[in-house]
Amino acid sequence: MTEIVGFSGSTHRPSSTRTLVDTVVKAIHSADTATAQVFDVLDLGDSFGSARSRGDLSASAEALFSRVEKADVLVVGSPVYNASYSGLFKHFFDLMAPDALRYKLICLTATGGADRHALVLEQHMRPLFGFFGALSMPTSVFAARQDFRDGVLSSPAVVDRISRLARELKLFQPVERWPLDDMREFSTAEADDAPILPGAMAAALPAHRNSCARSSQTDGEI
């Protein structure tokens, strides 16, 4: 069973960002999915904007934070303001511990007034979740104002990217244990609590190790 949570960093309702996140969640939701929930910053209530730590949050806001941290798949979206994600979107993740999203599967989305804002996904959002040690899907989804009609996502190109994202996500299912013998930097204690890694990624690690070994024989230390 998989739990999917969507989070929109928009403060508007209705919102194109919320619509995009909703659309992606519906695309990846399947019969074996236990639950799927989407919320935005307005759902976090008045305590969120002034919170300096998790202890400053209301009980309902803390419950949403916990839901995100426990999810198997997280779909995030933000409107683009001045070439970056919204301040409240960043504030949400600033209140999380650095390891709170480790190995979580992340679907990146964003909206903006024009296509020129699309680079925010690669220049800002992907590095943010890389810091947390999360696993962001290769395909990200950006939608501009002209991609919506009457509040509904209508661009065939954007819908196609969402379909590709959904297909990619199926490849990142937790089917086997991390091959710890190939990850020498892990301590024995850490090995006991090893996470489940996507099968495609886990299968690639031995080949990567062998490639590094061959390179070291000819080129020295790497």
Structural overview:
The chain has 222 residues and is of the alpha/beta class. The chain folds into 2 domains: 2-172, Flavodoxin domain (Rossmann fold, 3-Layer(aba) Sandwich); 176-219, no CATH class. Helices cover 41% and strands 23% of the residues. It has helices at residues 16-28, 46-50, 59-70, 87-94, 120-131, 156-171, 188-192, 199-219; strands at residues 2-8, 33-40, 73-81, 84-85, 105-112, 135-136, 141-144, 148-149, 152-153, 174-177, 196-198. The strands form 3 sheets. Strands 1, 2, 3, 4, 5, 6 and 7 form a 7-stranded mixed beta sheet that branches. Strands 8-9 form a two-stranded antiparallel sheet. It has a two-stranded antiparallel sheet with strand order 10-11. Helix 1 links the parallel strand 1 and strand 2 (33-40). Helix 1 (16-28) crosses helix 6 (156-171).
Question: How would you summarize the topology of this molecule?
Answer:
Layout: E1 2-8, H1 16-28, E2 33-40, H2 46-50, H3 59-70, E3 73-81, E4 84-85, H4 87-94, E5 105-112, H5 120-131, E6 135-136, E7 141-144, E8 148-149, E9 152-153, H6 156-171, E10 174-177, H7 188-192, E11 196-198, H8 199-219
Parallel strand pairs: 1-2, 1-3, 3-5, 5-6, 5-7
Antiparallel strand pairs: 3-4, 8-9, 10-11
Helix pairs in contact: 1-6
